[in-house]
Design a protein that fits this description.
elongated, 5 helices, mainly alpha, 63% helix
Length: 131
């Protein structure tokens, strides 16, 4: 249980109630109430609501185009940084097979006399597998 998140949710519910009392049922009261309930439920489940995500959501609701451009420019440096990282060494299958052959266990000796196949009856076989 995350008490800070539950407290934030209760604050949102109080703001929703204040909006309801002053303006009646409106968009702000409904959004604040739904958000407050969601945050309280997240807190009861032990999850944490990050302030960055809440700010990004509020920016998106007020100015969707600007929020998308801001998010893209914030992440552009990360995207370019990933593109300039040195790549990992490429996988060489021949070297992997050579390593396996060097480290594999010694083969087991062949049996002295080969096994003979004896026909069996039914799915579970009502005969001996070897003679």
């Amino acid at each position: 249980m995350n008490l800070k998140t539950i407290g934030a949710g209760l604050l949102l519910l109080a703001l929703a109630f204040w909006q309801f009392v002053t303006n009646g049922v409106g968009f702000n009261a409904l959004v604040l109430g739904a958000g407050g309930l969601a945050v309280v439920l997240f807190g009861a489940m032990g999850r944490n609501i990050e302030a960055e995500r809440a700010q990004g959501t509020a920016d998106f609701l007020t100015d969707p185009g600007g929020a998308i451009v801001d998010a893209a420019t914030d992440r552009l440096g990360d995207w370019l940084g990933e593109a300039t990282k040195p790549t990992q060494e490429e996988f060489d299958p021949d070297a992997a097979i050579a390593r396996y052959l060097e480290n594999r266990p010694a083969s087991q000796p062949e049996p002295a006399e080969p096994r003979r196949y004896v026909p069996r009856f039914g799915r579970k076989g009502l005969g001996s597998a070897q003679s």
